[in-house]
């Protein structure tokens, strides 16, 4: 897995500890500091890892009105593939699990990525700056069908704060969907005292622009500045025109609304603000508002529920400085009114012996009781739906789908190397159905990561214990 794959995948991927350590130790990784109170939001759910990149605002669905999510534990178990002869190129097989889930197992001689629904084979130069060759396949039934894409090469060449950011990237649009590829663009000055980098992320619903982030420094010194990059012209658009430069000098990133009308800007920790600060910025009016002033509730941070609503977080620390409780509000941007939807609730910490509390996913959250009972809460309206017949265990976890209407559920085996996924399932929040199946033979693979590939497909990255053969396991729900 290269850095470009990792950056793009982090919004939908839960990697195992070994994979995270291996990737983050590579020389071409930019390590980014996030203030403690922003860590709270991100740590509750893998889907919010993109809080330091760009958030897909998850609109509160009017369909989430049912009082119950019915849990169905499928009798049929999945037989996980393993071992075998190393193939020459990718090889695919498939299976059906309980007539409800279609599984496709892609056995590979090396790492292949996913570009939307396409399997990719990218060849990079030794310095990882130039894409030398590429191949794409469509995964269809029991076949891999070669696909030709109209690949474009474009340049980044922009000077900001007396630093020149340069490099090449590649992109294409296929069936209306945009994807891009960029290598290692980090630069270090001759003295080794200063470094800078640039990278992209997607803009939801757009295939003509990318969000370009220019950054300097690492850890506590990390600062970034965003632009919109227009693919057809190569021109960049200023997003923070007229904003106080002192705020930007202390900012380690921003989360944008879908229409790029508003941004939540986070700031570094300081003596006065040990957990950092956060501001709401309006591009239309040029105004900057401290999040603590929104709704008069003294919130510590916020997240976009949709273009008209924020979810405000008021957090209470424990004696060790970590977040112990959270109170949540639905804040109407047009009226300025904040309505409490959850009060002084423990926040979920997976390292505890019997973890319980709240995991947040944009405009929704999962609330786990001490007895393992689970509710899905619409944080905009306060509506709750109970997972009937399901009991949460310590090794369980959830992840929101890209469109926010489904929850991936998986359980892991801590005694195995890698994730060791013992059970897999999906809760459909609109249909009110939650089903899962057990997996046999997972211990024969080193499962490195799990996440959503699209709103209906879950993928697991794995390899044989000797690392010689790789697997991409795809599940269509």
What is the first-to-last residue Cα distance? 26 Å
Q: Helix- and strand-based class?
A: mainly beta
Kindly state the mean pLDDT as a whole number? 84
In terms of quaternary structure, the protein is single chain
How many strands, what sense, and barrel or not for the largest sheet? 10 strands, mixed
| DSSP summary: helix tally | 4
Q: Based on CA inertia axes, which overall geometry fits?
A: globular
Strand runs, count: 36
The portion of residues forming beta strands comes to: over 45%
Q: pLDDT below 50 for ≥5 consecutive residues: which ranges?
A: 1-12, 18-66
Helix content percent band: under 10%
Q: What Rg is obtained from the alpha carbons, in whole angstroms?
A: 22 Å
Kindly describe this structure:
The chain is mostly beta strands. It contains 4 helices and 36 strands. Strands 2, 3, 26, 27, 28, 29, 30, 31, 32 and 33 form a 10-stranded mixed beta sheet that branches. A 6-stranded antiparallel beta sheet has the order 1-34-35-36-5-4. The chain is globular, with a radius of gyration of 22 Å. The two termini are 26 Å apart. The N terminus is likely disordered.
């Amino acid at each position: 897995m290269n850095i470009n794959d990792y950056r793009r995948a982090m919004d939908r991927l839960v990697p195992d500890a070994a994979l995270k350590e291996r990737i983050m130790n590579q020389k071409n990784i930019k390590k980014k500091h996030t203030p403690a109170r922003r860590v709270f939001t991100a740590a509750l759910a893998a889907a919010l890892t993109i809080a330091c990149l760009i958030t897909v605002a998850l609109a509160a669905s009017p369909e989430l009105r049912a009082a119950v999510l019915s849990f169905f534990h499928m009798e049929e178990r999945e037989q996980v593939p393993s071992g075998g002869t190393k193939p020459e190129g990718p090889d695919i097989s498939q299976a059906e699990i309980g007539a409800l889930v279609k599984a496709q197992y892609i056995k590979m001689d090396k790492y292949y990525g996913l570009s939307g629904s396409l399997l990719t084979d990218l060849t990079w130069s030794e310095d990882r700056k130039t894409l030398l060759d590429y191949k794409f396949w469509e995964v269809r039934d029991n076949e891999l069908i070669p696909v030709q894409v109209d690949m474009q090469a474009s340049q980044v060449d922009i000077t900001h704060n007396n630093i020149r950011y340069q490099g090449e990237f590649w992109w294409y649009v296929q069936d209306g969907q945009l994807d891009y590829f960029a290598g290692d663009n980090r630069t270090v000055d001759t003295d080794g005292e200063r470094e800078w980098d640039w990278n992209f992320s997607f803009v939801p619903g757009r295939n003509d622009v990318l969000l370009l982030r220019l950054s300097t420094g690492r850890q506590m010194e990390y600062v970034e500045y965003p632009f919109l990059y227009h693919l057809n012209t190569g021109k960049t658009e200023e997003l923070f025109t007229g904003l106080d430069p002192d705020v930007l000098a202390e900012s380690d990133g921003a989360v944008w609304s879908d229409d790029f009308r508003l941004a939540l800007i986070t700031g570094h920790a300081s003596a006065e603000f040990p957990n950092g600060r956060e501001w709401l910025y309006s591009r239309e009016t040029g105004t900057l508002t401290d999040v603590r002033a929104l709704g008069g509730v003294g919130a510590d941070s916020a997240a976009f529920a949709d273009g008209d609503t924020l979810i405000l977080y008021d957090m209470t620390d424990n004696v060790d400085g970590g977040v112990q409780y959270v109170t949540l509000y639905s804040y109407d941007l047009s009226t300025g009114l904040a309505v409490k939807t959850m009060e002084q609730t423990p926040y979920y910490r997976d390292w505890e012996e019997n973890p319980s509390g709240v995991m947040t996913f944009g405009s929704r959250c999962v609330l786990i009781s001490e007895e393992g009972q689970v509710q899905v809460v619409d944080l905009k309206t306060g509506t709750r739906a109970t997972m009937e017949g399901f009991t949460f265990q310590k090794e369980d976890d959830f992840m929101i789908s890209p469109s926010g209407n489904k929850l991936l559920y998986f359980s892991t085996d801590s005694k195995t190397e890698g994730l060791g996924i013992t059970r897999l399932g999906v809760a459909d929040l609109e249909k009110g159905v939650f089903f899962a199946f057990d997996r046999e033979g997972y211990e024969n693979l080193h499962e490195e990561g799990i996440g959503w590939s699209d709103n209906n497909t879950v993928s697991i990255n794995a390899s044989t214990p000797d690392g010689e053969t790789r697997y991409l396991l795809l599940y269509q729900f």
